[in-house]
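Contributing new records

If you add data, match the layout below exactly. Sequence lines come first and carry their own label; structure lines follow with theirs. Keep one chain per record. Anything else will be rejected by the validation script.
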Amino acid sequence: MSHAACSQAGPGPPGPVHCLAFDFGAGSGRAMLGRLDTCGLALEEVHRFDTATVIDDGQLCWDPDALYGGLETGLRAAQSLGPIHAIGIDAWGVDFGLVDAEGRLLAPPLHHRNGHGSRGVARGLLSLDDMHRRTGAQKLELNTVFQLIDLRARRPELIAAADRLLLMADLFSAHLTGRQTNEYTLATTTGLFDTVRGEWAYALIDELGLPRRLFRPVVAPGQRCGVLRPALRAADGVATPVVAVGAHDTASAVAGLDLAADEAFLILGSWSLLGVETGAPTRDARTLAHGFGNEGGVCGTHRLITRMNGLYLIQMLRQAWRVRHDEYPEFSEITAAARAARSLGLPASMRIDPTDRRFFAPDDIMMAIDDSLDAGGHSRPAGLGEYALAIYRGLADQIAVGVATLEQGFGHRIGAIHVCGGGSQDALLCECIVEATGKPIRHGAVEAAAYGNVLMQLIGLGAVDDLRAARALLGGSSRREQA
């Protein structure tokens, strides 16, 4: 089954086209208004909000009311600026909500760092290797399939009452339209979708005792999910279409990069996401051995990708420093302190291994770093800058390993690394990456996911023909990006 088609709805609107992109990240969400006119494509932030969490039944969950509130506030802010021709939503993968036959959310969606995915693996029903062999997904304990295995054992009544599984951007789309859909790129993050065959892995779903009704046929990026429900429409009452974009934020981010043939993409956010865009999925002994997986992209593209720990660790350092010193340093202060520490010529041993399990969800990352260095017989960091530098070096090291694997393990010649995301603004991190990989860095838009989201809306509206034409609009976009 192919999900290559970028559906179009005939000629686009006359004159300037305005598309509203909601880009939800693990730390914050943003509403970005895109405008395509004779001058090119421009993007403006109209609202930013925290992606809030809540403790429910002793579990770390996403706060659905806060997330829906941020969505509606961003929508109203954009509507106040004038007509909107389309809306698209992207968000992180793997996490989901279960809804009943009336579309009501049965419980707050669990957070992937809650630990229930690891418990799902430990239950022994499915190994990471077997999951990859059958679906092509990256071997990650936080994948949807392992979350579901644990949830089925712990809360069977939720599975029994559920009519459908919606991943996060699917949930937000349903909130706007009242219509439930499952988008293709998100489905490929679950570990329950066969990325080679292009359909749900129903044999695996049956073996795990999960109801087939939870997993409905997927919609491709560019297709329309529905229209704004009446209660959310602007004063003019226009039923603005909601277009399926690359609803997985990684899919949108890569769509928003004008990648050269010899470039790897690197998305620097809470996670570091490294890979290459391909025309077909890769699932063989190499992906199994090297920890890479396949994710679906827009317009027939695929991504050979690995997910690594990222700037979440710096966020945890801010929190730990606040607890210990009653100070909450800005990211710029942390970077400056790390740069100062680097100038002192600290030993190369002052670095962490971000793949160490102690760094997945540390209660106190400073203690975790101390323990890690103690175990190796190395000196502990002496201040904020040294702790940060240990993290930066470790992040760069794992990216270097990933780049080497793409070249030596998969035969992809990497001439440069195309970076985007909030971490691409961190000059020290980028310097560490260049030093560790020996590759030049090319900077894409910080808000690449929002750009990719808008591009797919334009394709869905028929205002742009295809992905190649859409990416051609990015030439001047980064220069016009507004804070």
